[in-house]
Design goal:
The protein has 98 residues and is of the alpha+beta class. The chain has a single domain (7-97), classed as Phenylalanyl-tRNA Synthetase, Chain B, domain 1 (2-Layer Sandwich), CATH 3.30.56.30. It is 29% helix and 14% strand. A three-stranded antiparallel sheet has the order 1-3-2, with helices on one face. Helix 1 (38-47) packs across helix 2 (80-97). The chain is globular and about 30 Å long. The chain starts with 6 loop residues before the first strand and ends with a helix.
């Protein structure tokens, strides 16, 4: 079994504006994103200077039928809640440039 000690898991469901907090959203509604995928999370994390990896074939436990995968990010000791908001802000910047 692979050790993922410095890495923290980030699921697309954490950022999904269509979900409620009880359904898995972890950030405030004002930072939530309408259309989110793992590539957006991966790009945003790398642009913020974090080491990030996409992991295919994993399902979020609350929506096990959905298979978006997940992103593991080495947060370098920064709290997960702060990284979540920073990544969400960066995703919004990326999406507005498209």
């Amino acid at each position: 079994m692979r050790s993922r000690k410095p890495f923290i898991i980030f699921w697309p469901q954490y950022f999904d504006a269509k979900r409620s907090r009880s359904k898995g959203r972890r950030i405030p509604k004002k930072y939530a994103i309408e259309k989110i995928n793992t590539n957006d999370i991966l790009k945003a994390a790398k642009r913020l200077g974090y080491e990030a990896h996409y992991e295919k074939g994993y399902q979020y436990p609350k929506t096990w039928w959905d298979d978006p995968g997940r992103v593991s990010i080495d947060t370098k000791g920064v709290k997960k809640s702060k990284v979540l908001i920073d990544v969400a802000k960066e995703i919004k910047k990326i999406q507005t440039k498209k």
